[in-house]
Design goal:
Elements: H1 3-9, H2 21-57, E1 68-73, E2 80-96, E3 103-104, E4 118-124, H3 133-143, E5 148-149, E6 154-155, E7 160-162, H4 177-185, E8 204-205, E9 215-216, E10 218-225, E11 231-238, E12 243-245, E13 252-254, H5 267-272, E14 288-293, H6 299-316, E15 317-318, E16 328-333, H7 343-364, H8 374-378
Parallel strand pairs: 4-7, 14-16
Antiparallel strand pairs: 1-2, 2-4, 2-16, 3-7, 5-6, 8-9, 10-11, 11-14, 12-13, 12-15
């Protein structure tokens, strides 16, 4: 088409410009990059929404992608271990508030120290003897080629914490390395069993006036999923001196019983009334738990989340962090969510789901001889 013909078709068109070939290629390349970026953002958003829906379908700790939970309960007496597996590793932190903790490998979670990730967390009964369960988890992980690569071997990093349940049944029976191995082998990403299982099998609560007026504790878990795909979850083995309180109502769910054993005395009222408390031996209790998120966190941020999660303990246990408890919370971040996490949001949600998990633990328990469950006393109210 000639220039005169173009001008007749559209008089406002000027002479045809000549675009250099290099500039044209740059323009095409830029257009492709913009389209790719737009498509990538759309795909990321769709993936996050899909992940959020998947997490919502599974409540509890395993709603966090990248985590599996396994539990093993000893048949000889009520005790056992609960194992959280992170096969691809997870950034971890820890915060210990009780005065009588029993832990393993917590120093390496300090942000100033080298190891960037852990591969499992172990919660166990059996007092300090129960820390042996972590050795079995290490063995299972090594068999599956999971661990921190030191060239000559892969060393699984497995922090652990224990609770005291030796007063329930035969104290000679406690979790061993075999218990940890079986729990790790049983780990799945499916729903987590709650109540009288794993580390919570021999757990009790409400021991302010001694074991004779206590009730049954247990394992509980809870999670929350936001619209942007962020998941925050908790798992806890509740074995507290104090009572378990429902933060939504302020009512006691399980705790120290009245003298006739048929009602709840309320530890808060007993303390204010100056009730004479038997001298407890340090460390015969302890609530231990894990909070986790799919967000990306540093070790320092993970430690802060663990600190904030203790607010969940304070909301749902009274009294808490006592001289007779070794209260400990681990924090895990799998980083499967594309965006970096907001620590304040994650920490606040961690406290919420931790409090919910504590209440769920006692509600799921079926009780033991001498240690009634929450549902046993509720039926008598």
């Amino acid at each position: 088409m000639s220039q005169s013909m173009l001008q007749r078709v559209s008089p406002r068109l000027g002479p045809p410009s000549r675009v250099p070939w290099r500039e044209m290629r740059r323009g095409v390349r830029l257009a492709v990059l913009v389209c790719a970026a737009t498509l990538g953002a759309a795909c990321d958003g769709a993936a996050q929404q899909a992940a959020g829906k998947a997490a919502a379908a599974v409540s509890g700790l395993t709603a966090v992608s990248g985590l599996k939970v396994g539990q093993f309960t000893l048949g000889e007496r009520p005790t056992g271990c609960t194992v959280i597996i992170a096969e691809k590793g997870a950034v971890a932190g820890v915060d210990v508030r009780g005065a009588a903790p029993g832990t393993r490998e917590t120093d390496l979670l300090d942000p100033v120290n080298l190891v960037p990730m852990v591969h499992a967390i172990v919660l166990a009964g059996g007092s300090a003897f129960g820390l042996d369960a972590a050795s079995g988890v290490m063995r299972w992980l090594e068999e599956h080629d999971i661990g921190f690569d030191v060239r000559v071997a892969k060393v699984p990093i497995v922090p652990a914490a224990i609770l005291f349940d030796l007063g329930v049944g035969n104290a000679k029976i406690r979790p061993t390395a075999d218990c940890g191995y079986k729990a790790a082998a049983a780990a799945t990403s499916g729903p987590v069993v709650e109540g009288d299982v794993g580390a919570g099998a021999g757990a009790t609560v409400g021991k302010l006036l001694g074991a004779g007026r206590a009730m049954k504790g247990g394992v509980g878990t809870a999670s929350i999923t936001l619209s942007d795909g962020l998941v925050v979850a908790a798992l806890v083995a509740v074995n507290a001196v104090g009572d378990v309180i429902d933060p939504n109502t302020g009512a006691v769910e399980a705790g120290v019983r009245t003298e006739d054993g048929k009602g709840l005395a309320d530890a808060r009222k007993l303390l204010r009334a100056g009730a004479t408390r038997p001298r407890g031996r340090v460390g015969e209790n302890t609530t231990i738990g894990v909070v986790a998120t799919n967000a990306r966190l540093t070790k320092a941020q993970a430690s802060k989340v663990a600190q904030m999660a203790h607010d969940g303990y304070a909301r749902a246990i009274a009294p808490v962090h006592t001289m007779n408890d070794g209260d400990t919370i681990f924090s895990l971040a799998t980083g499967t969510l594309a965006s970096a996490g907001d620590v304040t949001t994650i920490g606040a949600l961690a406290a919420d789901v931790m409090a919910e998990a504590i209440v769920r633990a006692v509600r799921a328990s079926k009780g033991l001889p001498g240690y009634p469950a929450a549902k046993d006393l509720q039926s008598k109210r």
